[in-house]
Amino acid sequence: MSAPETLRVGVDLVAVEEVAASLDHFGDRYVTRLFTAHEIETCRTAGTSGEGRAGYAVESLAARFAAKEAVVKVLRPIEMQPDWRTIEIHRMTGGWCEIRLSGQAAELAADAGIGELAVSLSHESTMATAVVVGRCTPRGEGDR
Amino acid sequence: MTVDETIRQVLTDHGRLAVPVDALSDDTDLFGAGMTSHASVNVMLALEDAFDFEFSEKMLKKSTFESIGSIRSGVLEMTGG
Fold it and tell me: Where are the domains of chain A?
């Protein structure tokens, strides 16, 4: 008999001003260490308030960081912290987002039997948040 | 500044801790003291600036940044100190 499927949920909240302060202090190095090329491109053009600080829609970057942290909460790493860029928040043509994992994050998901992830992002001018749900098929004793 | 003084200054500037850095011992859990994941990214980048290196991929784990002592070990490993 196969193990029953379970759900894991992760949520995170990020202050937009903290991301803005990081952009001010570290500039592009902050962006390139955390975000994939797709995310960077998306956040350069997304948003309704025009060009943000350093040319980025800061609220969108904050929401994506919140989503990455929410994914980490779903993956539940014990020791290895996956490179933030191995968790990509991929904006689809229709406007919704999907999660694409690679490298360490994909390995953690595979180890946990997580085959599907869903994400929802939201932000106001001061705060950004994301919720991630993962569908998990435990793999016996090795499941965490 | 010494390595420890620099680490404490970085934590003061970027750690967004809920308690004064002076009150932290070498093994105080920084995440327990209020440092968020986002703040830990800033701490990492500021340490790289302060010590002029880039953390290797294997050093980018939560345990590297969980205390002043663990940060010191990471810095010394990266700088060959």
Answer: 6-142
Q: What is the pLDDT of residue A143?
A: 47
Pairing of strands A114-123, A87-91: unpaired
- Domain CATH for B37: 1.10.1200.10
The hierarchical CATH code for the domain A6-142 is 3.90.470.20
Which residue ranges in chain B fall short of pLDDT 70? none
Number of domains in chain B: 1
Residue numbers in A near B61 (CB within 8 A): 79-81
ipTM of the complex: 0.87
Chain A contact set for B45 (CB, 8 A): 22, 26, 29-30, 33
Sort out which chain B residues have CB atoms less than 8 A from A22's CB and list them.
38, 41-42, 45
Chain B residues whose C-beta is within 8 A of a chain A C-beta are 16, 37-39, 41-42, 45-46, 57, 60-63
pLDDT grade for A4, boundaries at 50, 70 and 90: confident
Residue-by-residue DSSP string for B3-70: HHHHHHHHHHHH---SS-GGG--TT--TTTTT--HHHHHHHHHHHHHHHT----GGG-SGGGGSSHHH
